[in-house]
Every structure is written in structure tokens, then in C-alpha cells.
């Protein structure tokens, strides 16, 4: 499959990218301007070699080869004995959001631990060997806590390495969830990781309460994303009943990074305790838990912190809660102050700060693994890791957008990225939603291609390029395999240029603006479009991006000399293989400006009745509906459908075009609207001009068909001569497409030559008179 992406744009020249500027834009929530060659392997290599991007620490990690992924035994065979010899032999590991890769330092630390244990046994609790990377066992938890403090933005006294994530959540809720008869609710997300749900549910039940009444769920606004506005509203509405807020820093399913400082500040304003599950945020996002005044937070260390499966977890307790006089957590001997821990007098004196929340002796094996992983973090900073991550994930998003745009089928994308597009509100992960009937086969194809990423039924693939060890080359290689997977295994099928217009009806793709990588501007109109569609259907844009200089770099094409109406219809044609004139109808649009009509006609809106099905309005119509004043667009109720379907409901209304007021049957219009509809004659001739100007595949043929049909109905309109003049003024003598139709129309209705405006045409354009003569010769068999 190698070469799928780069073969799509053979005309793309190499263009360098200002990576530092791109990272700055991403930090501000803006998308960078990607050059035209982003889908080339050379571009990926240029990013990996850029000194403007914080470096990768991939050499510090054990990256399995594709062959090793298939091994069945610990014992090496001929295929698994040696590491990958080239980057292409390495597995593509995008599963750091589930389990991070093994740092090489972990093996070194574990060997040191085993040597220490074997050499001095119990002495390892109090003594470290001189050449060991390890501290005495009793100091290892504090040492790891100090290192983790920088990762989550806290002071060392506010951090503790202990237990595992769910246990720590229980310990924190035991300390901070103190329900009363009135204040008993815990706010949490609508779809938490199951263990979080079970923990919250059981804590509520532990206090003798009903989870159905005491769990306040934050629902997403659009199916997947929880907006900060909605969270703040829920807090305000339930302020008298909320005892605790516990939310994820990053939602595990969608990859959304919540606005932790804003939500925390709002909780502080109402004096509500707030805690955060940072399983997917620690080591991934920049955090400032102390400065944000978070009450508590918990995280695991086996994901982005790479400490190994089931490794020891971390917890943060703000220093305001760590004072001995205010200690309120469950107790255990390892939370006792270190100076008197071994006195065994059963008088609990908590260790100041978060260390006092410990109950048991932490696993030294786990701490050894964590210490090995944290030794890599000491070589960088979260600021640098986040900068690299922002660009790495944005690059992945950009390439996915290209794949989505060129694999449109039946007007739908082959997949959807449900992670927020604003880089400030996501981490490394992109959650890609595939159709259920595609998911299994596509997942299997990824595995076959040596890709390891996390899958969640029914259709989510979680792609997480981790900045610590993933490269831009990894991203590029993944995209090769992913596109091949959706092309072969599912609904995606790469669209190739076709001779008769655009291959799909994709107006909803255009309307959504999703995955746009090119902007076309015409006066006040801006269109977020897709190179994969526009360049394949209009050679002008392909050439412009290849040789256009600043257009190639900026991703913006300006068309200042064209009519906005014509450009709008051109864009619609490029996406749908069709264009429909939006002309005001005299009956329905009396007193309504054309600009208002156009604005209203662009969008899908509900009917007057809130319970009605949505509709889309793409064309003018004559309306005799008794209960409407026709001050806004609606589906015309007066038509017969050739498909014998009820066109007023369901998805069929978006594709049905057999309305009695549509241009295919303009004779059904009352005379009062004939002149308005006749305006399409000129519009069609303008569309022919723009099709020729921008070398648009199939558009001229479509215009010829439409113009011929319109001339049959509106030949006697005064608009006919205007359109005819435009045709002969804007086409070459040997371009017979519309010229022949004008000549044939006059020949069929010779009375037209008596009209003054037609006589002017005959005098101005000799080719027209000759054309009429030729038509008459053919007609009479001369």
C-alpha cells in the first residue's frame, strides 16, 4: 500500500513548513497552514529532521518489530531474534493511550533492583548500592513523587505514588465525599470508563444512597463532546445538591481534553470539592494542578508515563488538604510519618502532605519501573512534549482529513473524527469512528499491516501518536495502511476523476466544512473545501496549487473577478455533480431580498412545527399552501414523486428533485413567475463561461443540457436575448456548445428575428446568423 497518498498528488512540489509558527498557531487554537506536499513521505521526513520541533526520545524505547508482534514464545526464532533493521520493519505503535512502550531504562532499573535484592536483601530498604540508579526502597516513593510533580504541575509534597488508579479514586472519595441529606450528588461524565462508574456508584451505595438519584451525569452536546458551558450550567443548576465533582481530564473514548482550570474555578466559586481522573492526561497534557487549585486528582502511570502494565498509580492532594490537623482520609501504617513509622505505638501521625494518604508499603518492583520511565521524562519537559504532540496529532488529523475527503461515498465520509478539532481541547489521541460493518475488517487490516492501536466497540479506533517516541514517519506509514484498509474493507472507495461531472452527491460534506484543507474566497463568500475533491474536478485549481506560489503555501485561492453567485454554484457542482439555480419566486418571495433568500437557502432548518422532520431547500418553488405566508423556505407540498415515496419525511426528501416547480418542469409554473425563472438562461451561460475558465470536468456538458431545456421554455422571454448575447460574447467561434442551441432556438421560432434585441444580436455576431442559416438548411433538407 506504500505510495497511495503520494500518488494522489503527483503535481505537488516540495514545500517546507515553518514548524515553530505552526506549533504557535496550534497553542492558540488555530490550524496551521499545511503546504501542498504534506502527503509525501519526504514531508514527513522533513518534520522528523526539523530542529524547530522538540526531539523524539524514540531511541530510549524498545520498539517492537512487525515480526515480533507475531511471536508465540519467549524464545527467539529466526524472525524475532533481531530488532527491526529499518524503520519500515518496526511496528506502528499508536497505543500509548492504553499501554506505553517500554523504556530501555526500565530494564536497567529492574536489573539493578534484582541485583540489590539478591545482594543485600532487606538492607535495600535503607541502603542503595553506589553504582545503582535506585535509591533505598523506603525513599523510592518520595523520589518518584518528586519527579511526577513536574509532570502534573504540583509541589512534591502534593504528590504520592501508591496503589492503582481505582483504589486511589476510592481513597480520595472516602476522604472528600461527605454527603448530607441535602448535598449528596456526585457530578460525573455520562460515559466514564467503567471502573470510574463502578467506583462512584459503590461510594454512593456505601453511604446508603441511591446512585440513580445521586449521580449527576454530564451529557455531551453533540453526541460525543461535553462543552464547558454545559458543565458550568449544570453546576449552577445543582449547586445546592452537589457534594463532589469528579470528571476526566481527558475523556477516554472521545479524546476530549476538558477545560480543567475553568471548571475547577467555577467549583471553587461555589465551594464544591472537585477531583479529576487524569488517566489520559498525565504525561500527555500540560497540567498545573496546584495553580488551578484542584482538590485532588488521580492517574495511572502505564499509559503516557510508560511504567508498564498495571504499574503503580499517582495521586495529587492540594497542600491545603495535607495539613495534619485537617487529615480526613483512611489510614494505614505507610501513611504514618516516616520519622516514627517503626515505633509501632499505634498513635497515627500522618506524613505531611499527600504522602499521608498512603496505606500500604508500595511495590518496589512497580516503583522501580516507574523510576526507570521517569528518568526519560527528566531529559525533557511537558512544554516540549506538548509542543511536539500538538504538531504530531495535527499532522495525523490533516492526513486523515485528506483520506476522508477523497473516500466519500454516497455523500458520506467513510469515517468521522469525534475528537475536538480545537487542539487546545485534546491530547495526543484522535478517536476515529467507523461504520460498524467496516470496523472489524478494517481493524484486522491494520493489525495485518503491523499497526497497533486501541479499538473500542462498536466502531472507535483510538489513534494516539505519543510525542515521547512516535515520529511523523509513523503517522505517514499509518495513513498508508489505514486508507488501504477502508478502501478494501468498507464503504470507502477512492474517487477518481470522471468524465461526466463529480462522482458523488456530497453537498453535506461541503456544508459541514469538516476536514477542509483549502479555502476559496470570492468577495464576501468563503468556502472551506477539500483539495482532493476540488483539484480532481477542476484542473485550474490543481495547476494553481502546483505552480501558484503563495496559494500553495497559504492554502487560500482568491477569485476576485468572478460573480459570487456563479462561484457558489461552481462549488456546489464540484461536490455534487449538479448545480441548482436559486432564483426568487414571485409568489413565495415577494418582498424578500435575493441575498436573504440565498442565505436562508443554504441551510437545513426545522419546519414551523417543532415535531416535524427537517427539510432542506435548494431551489425556488411556487407555493399555494393555505397556512403559510412563505416568508421562509420550506419543502413544497405540491409535487408528485417518481419513486412513489413520501418525500416530506426521511432522507429521501434530500435527493428527490421531481417537484412540479423545479426547472425540469417549468411549464407547471404560473405565468407570474415565468420571468423570474427565465433568469436561469443567463445563469447557465455564466456557468458555461466559468466551466471553461477553470477547466471543470463535465460541467460544460451539464450546462448544455440545462440551457437547452431552459431555451425550450423561455425562448419568448426578454431574458433569452440577454443570455444569447452573453453566450456569443464569452465563447470562441469554434465552441459550438451553447451557440448551436441559441441558433436552433431562433430557427425554431423565427418570429424572434423581428424583436429589436434579436436583430441587434444578428448584426453584432455574424456567427449567429450563419448558425440560424445552417439550422434551416438542415431542417428543410436543402
UniProtKB/TrEMBL annotation:
Q: Name one GO cellular component term.
A: cytoplasm
Domain BTB: start-end pairs? 516-578
**Matches recorded under CDD domains:** BTB_POZ_ZBTB_KLHL-like (cd18186)
Task: Quote the SUPFAM superfamilies the UniProt record gives.
Answer: PLP-dependent transferases, POZ domain
| Gene Ontology terms, MF aspect | kynureninase activity; pyridoxal phosphate binding
Keyword list, A-Z: Cytoplasm, Hydrolase, Pyridine nucleotide biosynthesis, Pyridoxal phosphate
Any GO BP: anthranilate metabolic process
Xref: InterPro entries: BTB/POZ_dom, Kynureninase, PyrdxlP-dep_Trfase, PyrdxlP-dep_Trfase_major, PyrdxlP-dep_Trfase_small, SKP1/BTB/POZ_sf
The protein here is known as Abnormal fluorescence under UV illumination
Query: Which species is listed as the source?
Result: Alternaria burnsii
